[in-house]
Amino acid sequence: MGVGVTDTLRAVHVRVTGRVQHVGFRWFVARAARDLGISGCVRNAADGSLEVDAFGAAEHVERLLDALRRGPPQAVVQSVEIDERPSPAAAVNPAFEIFP
């Protein structure tokens, strides 16, 4: 599911709040992102939220955002705040990584 030449690219920074730590959310996000061909990373924030940086085809990023709104079965998502990013650092690294 790689990005084609004609695809519109999108980069976002996302903050997910609710019961999103210690429920497998980072692994859920990484799996979804990798399946969609999205690069970036996911990490736990000190305030109990989850942060995601994602870069890829706009359609695939939107599908990832839909997954973030649902979360894995054990999670309770209260809000998903999306910040559009104009120049993605992830364009240099095509991997999707999980950080603590």
Strand order, largest beta sheet: 4-1-3-2-5
Helical amount: 25-40%
The shape is globular
**Strand tally, please?**
5
Secondary-structure element order, N to C: EHEEHEE
What gap, in angstroms, lies between the N and C termini?
27 Å
Query: Biggest sheet, in brief?
Result: 5 strands, mixed
Give the uncertain stretches in residue-range form.
none
Strand residues, percent = 35-45%
In short:
The protein has two helices and five strands, in the order βαββαββ. The protein has helices at residues 25-36, 58-70, and strands at residues 9-19, 39-44, 50-57, 76-84, 96-98.
Describe the model.
With 100 residues, the protein is an alpha+beta fold. Helices cover 25% and strands 37% of the residues. The protein has two helices and five strands; from the N terminus they run βαββαββ. The chain has helices at residues 25-36, 58-70; strands at 9-19, 39-44, 50-57, 76-84, 96-98. α1 (25-36) runs antiparallel to α2.
Keywords:
single chain, 100 residues, alpha+beta, five-stranded mixed beta sheet, 2 helices, 5 strands, 25% helix, 37% strand
